[in-house]
Amino acid sequence: MSEKDHNVSRRQFLTYTLTGVGGFMAAGVVLPMARFAIDPVLQTTGEGDMHAVTEVSELTDEPQRFDFSYEQEDAWYTSETTNSAWIYLDGDDIVALSPVCTHLGCTVNWNSNENHPNEFFCPCHGGRFEKDGTNVAGTPPTEPLHRYKVEVRDGTVYLGKAEPQI
């Protein structure tokens, strides 16, 4: 077919033109939204995710509660956040457990129930955990206490994010 025999009707021209313009407009709307949704996933977490909590010399083989604060950035808002951890020495290892009960999110305490010594106890619903954070069978929690990622730098204990032990 020669070029002279190939004619585009006015209707076809308008259809092609409007489809192209509509496609560019749709891309202009969708791409920024996709970038907004995907960008946080692509950002790497770095050294700033570890927070100084205590000195190694202060730790014993008995769990102790340590509170620590850090600045948290949520979009354009920066706030001071306070967390807690139960930290103890298990031989040469440092164990840091979250004090948040895995049943309903209450706060657990170490050795606070005289009927169940040397265990973490949740006073809200009677949840119990062993020293290593393992949940006691027959109590409401269905999973162990979450465990913090631990690093030691220059004699200081740094904690990262609490992760499930499962």
UniProtKB/TrEMBL annotation:
Record carries keyword Magnesium: no
Cofactor needs: [2Fe-2S] cluster
Keywords: 2Fe-2S, Disulfide bond, Iron, Iron-sulfur, Membrane, Metal-binding, Transmembrane, Transmembrane helix
Listed transmembrane segments: 12-34
CDD domains with a match to the protein in the record: Rieske
UniProt xrefs under InterPro entries: Rieske_2Fe-2S, Rieske_2Fe-2S_sf, Rieske_Fe-S_prot, Rieske_Fe-S_prot_C, TAT_signal
All residue ranges annotated as the Rieske domain in the record: 63-159
PANTHER family on file: CYTOCHROME B-C1 COMPLEX SUBUNIT RIESKE, MITOCHONDRIAL
Protein's UniProt name: Ubiquinol-cytochrome c reductase iron-sulfur subunit
